[in-house]
Amino acid sequence: MTHWHITSWVVALILVFVSYGLYGSGKAKGAKITHMILRLFYIIIILTGAELFVRFANWNGEYAGKMLLGIITIGLMEMLVIRKKKGKSTGGLWIGFIIVLVLTVLLGLHLPIGFHVF
Question: Which of 3, 21, 28, 44 is the 20 to 30 A CA-CA neighbour of 87?
Answer without folding.
Answer: 44
